[in-house]
Amino acid sequence: MDLVIQGKWALVCAASKGLGKGCAQALVREGVNVVITARGDEALQKTAAELRQINPQVQVRAVAGDIGQAPSRAQALAACPQVDILVNNAGGPPPGDFRQWDRDTWLAALDLNMLTPIELIKEVIGPMAERGFGRIINITSMSVKAPIDILGLSNGARSGLTGFVAGLSRNSEFASRNVTINNMLPGMFDTERLQKTLVQWATQSGDTLDHVIQARRRTSPAHRFGTAEEFGAVCAFLCSAHASYINGQNILLDGGAYPGSF
Ligand code: NAP
């Protein structure tokens, strides 16, 4: 299926690895020019080279920096001639006991996982509406729908973003001009982050890593983790011309792990 987004420009944040990289790969396959970001320049340049190999016809620009910092956001935006597609992503806040978190801990989580995507949306949504095309994807987490106790910072910050976006996506100033905003909620995806978490769980429980991996895989009816490639493919579809009537949705990708009917 031709997604009809060839020649568009996408800013894909936090995309040197994992889910962000999966989104960038899928968009590049569709002929979308991309600006990718991450803090570590080495992995970012390596990913940029891989993307150029996937599709030599597209432009790939890499901007190193912490997307939570205003100057890095400005650099990323400046590298993108126009942002037709924005994929908001960043690292997740650390787990822990909320009694240990002070105000600064909360502000850091809110800043990176709620206010940073809102700042970027603020910069790009007006021109998107003027051009009559815009796709905004926020990578959040299944924890928005099924909160996990030790991930309180993530539950709180991402729910704040979800609530804000639920209102904004339904503003007809943008929705009537073919600008959509959707959230993608990953369950467990086989990325570097998940691998680190699995090692942590194994160390804490004293169980073998293999046992922990098997047990976690079975928490999804699919009995496996998702892949960044399949996550990226859904992202590309949501960014396509065909998805213009999908707006304001929270798309759960968890192999059916969430047990509710809706
Ligand atoms: P990952 O494999 O660790 O990749 C994270 C990517 O984001 C890397 O490219 C990293 O590069 C970049 N990054 C992190 N913080 C950044 C920052 N402040 N500014 C710019 N780039 C930054 O992680 P992932 O599994 O793809 O997770 C992506 C998001 O999905 C996270 O928010 C995570 O909490 C959420 N999530 C993931 C899963 C899962 O199962 N994988 C489940 C639920 C939610 P640098 O470190 O070099 O910056």
Question: Which secondary structure elements does this structure contain, and how are they paired or packed?
Answer:
Elements lengths: L8 E4 L5 H12 L3 E6 L2 H14 L5 E5 L5 H9 L6 E4 L14 H29 L2 E6 L12 H17 L3 H4 L3 E8 L5 H14 L3 H9 L10 H11 L11 E4 L9
Parallel strand pairs: 1-2, 1-4, 2-3, 4-5, 5-6, 6-7
Helix pairs in contact: 1-2, 1-9, 4-5, 7-8
Bound molecules: NADP nicotinamide-adenine-dinucleotide phosphate.
NADP nicotinamide-adenine-dinucleotide phosphate (NAP) binds next to helix 1, strand 2 and helix 7.
Give keywords:
262 residues, 7-stranded parallel sheet, 9 helices, 45% helix, binds NADP nicotinamide-adenine-dinucleotide phosphate
